C-alpha cells in the first residue's frame, strides 16, 4: 500500500510539473509573439523599411493625376437668429463659409447667383435650433444640407464642398 501511495504522489507531482511547464511554455510563446508583433508594428531598425516606403510613395506620386485647380469662393459672414422655444432669450449663429469649386471659371459663374445662395442658407438656418448644430455630427449635417441647397441654387454650376471658416452659436 505504501508503494501505491508513493506512485500516486509521484504521478500527481509529474502532472503538476507538466502543467507548470505547459503554462511557462505558453507564457514564453506569448512574450515572443508580442515582441515580434511590436517589432513589425513599430518598424525594424535600419533604413531598408524606410527606403521601401519612400520608393512606394514616389511610385504613387509619379502615377497620380495632377491635382485639380480648385477655387474657393468666400461668402459674406452671416449672423442669423435660431428657432428657440423661449421667446425672451434669442440665440444666434454666426457663420463664415467658403464654397469650393473645381475650376476658377465655376466660381465666376456662381458669383451672380450669390443672393439666391444666401437666401437659401438664411432660410434654412432660421429653422434650426441650437441643438441641431451642436457637436461634429450637427456641423456635418448642416454642411451637407447647405451643400445640397447651394447646388440647387446655382444649377447647372456645381459646388464641390461647403467649408466652415468660422461657426459660433451665441
UniProtKB/TrEMBL annotation:
Regions crossing the membrane: 21-42
Highest rank taxon of the organism: Bacteria
Extent of the signal sequence: none
Main location: membrane
Protein's membrane topology: Single-pass membrane protein
Location in or out of the cell: Cell inner membrane; Cell membrane
BP-aspect Gene Ontology terms: bacterial-type flagellum-dependent swarming motility; chemotaxis
Keywords, in A-Z order: Cell inner membrane, Cell membrane, Cell projection, Chemotaxis, Cilium, Flagellar rotation, Flagellum, Membrane, Transmembrane, Transmembrane helix
InterPro entries in the cross-refs: FliL
Cellular component GO terms held in the UniProt record: bacterial-type flagellum basal body; plasma membrane
Pfam families: FliL
Job description of the protein: Controls the rotational direction of flagella during chemotaxis.
Family according to the record: Belongs to the FliL family.
Name listed for the protein in its UniProt record: Flagellar protein FliL
Amino acid at each position: 500500500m505504501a508503494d501505491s501511495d508513493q506512485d500516486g504522489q509521484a504521478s500527481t507531482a509529474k502532472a503538476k510539473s507538466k502543467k507548470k511547464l505547459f503554462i511557462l511554455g505558453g507564457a514564453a510563446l506569448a512574450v515572443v509573439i508580442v515582441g515580434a508583433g511590436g517589432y513589425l508594428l513599430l518598424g525594424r531598425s535600419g533604413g531598408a523599411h524606410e527606403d521601401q516606403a519612400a520608393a512606394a510613395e514616389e511610385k504613387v506620386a509619379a502615377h497620380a493625376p495632377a491635382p485639380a485647380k480648385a477655387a474657393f469662393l468666400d461668402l459674406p459672414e452671416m449672423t442669423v437668429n435660431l428657432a428657440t422655444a423661449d421667446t425672451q432669450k434669442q440665440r444666434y449663429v454666426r457663420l463664415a463659409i467658403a464654397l469650393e469649386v473645381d475650376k476658377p471659371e465655376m466660381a465666376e459663374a456662381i458669383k451672380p447667383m450669390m443672393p439666391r445662395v444666401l437666401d437659401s442658407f438664411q432660410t434654412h438656418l432660421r429653422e434650426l435650433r441650437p441643438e441641431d448644430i451642436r457637436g461634429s455630427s450637427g456641423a456635418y449635417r448642416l454642411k451637407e444640407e447647405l451643400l445640397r441647397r447651394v447646388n440647387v441654387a446655382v444649377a447647372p454650376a456645381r459646388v464641390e464642398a461647403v467649408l466652415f471658416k468660422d461657426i459660433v452659436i451665441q
